[in-house]
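Late entry, written up from scratch paper. The run itself happened at the end of the previous shift, but nothing got recorded in the book at the time, so transcribing now.
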Amino acid sequence: MTRGRSRRRSAFAVSDAIEGNYVRAGVWTVGICLVHPLMAIFAATFVVLIFLLQRRERLSVQALAAITLPLFPKVTPAIGGIADATVFFFDELGVVRMAGLTGAVRPACVDGLVGKRNSLGATHLICRTLIVFETIFFAMALVVSLPGRFDNLAEIQPMRCLHLLYVLMFLLGGGLLGKFVLQDKAWRWALLFLPLCAEWCWRSGRRFRLLRT
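Output as recorded:
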């Protein structure tokens, strides 16, 4: 429930940032923080990256580290012992393996190809931002997976950034599909959505019957 709400608000925040309305994007980000503080980190990072890329500012890794590292205090022995007992907490790369060995790399490549082949204004900006966005958090996941001084960064769970990344990829894919394939042909839209609706109704009915038994 909370993740679904944060997903919608993240999309609104990104949309407002692309339009240059950073005040409203900030309001949406605060709204995400009230519902799902962890997902607010990813939405806020994406909005900041859009702001920097629109103004062609150079991204400083040192400045980013100076801002973010103090937010996460050093892991105490007690917390470290609990975390060691829960391997998944630190095994950020395990999330990537579950999604496929190229789970974090492939979306960035696809976004890069889409952005370069189509001069679609905001689409290219979103694609470039996604590449930088995923690179940052994938690098953070690599660091977190190494035992030692950066265990505290595991609190961010960096590979959760894939949630926002895939949401935006599906939105981009749907927009490109509508623009170049479906266009204004009603029968094409019907050919796509009628099977999807039928499958959804079948699954919903099947789940409802299972709940009643």
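The mean pLDDT is 75.
(Scratch paper discarded after transcription.)
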